[in-house]
Amino acid sequence: MTPNVKDSLQKALGDNSRGMLGKWKGVLDVLLSSNAAFKSKLPVSSLLVHPQNRGGSGVQPFHMHQKGAKIAQCGASLDQLISSVCFEMQPEETKKLKQVKFNQDLVGASSGLMAPVQGGERYLTVSSSHTSQFCRAVAHGCKTSEPTLKDSNGNLSLEMLGKDKIFREMVEEGWDWVVIPWYIEEAFPNLPAMVADALNC
Question: Which of 51, 113, 118, 175 could form a disulfide with 102 if both were Cys (CB 3.0 to 4.6 A apart)?
Answer without folding.
Answer: 51
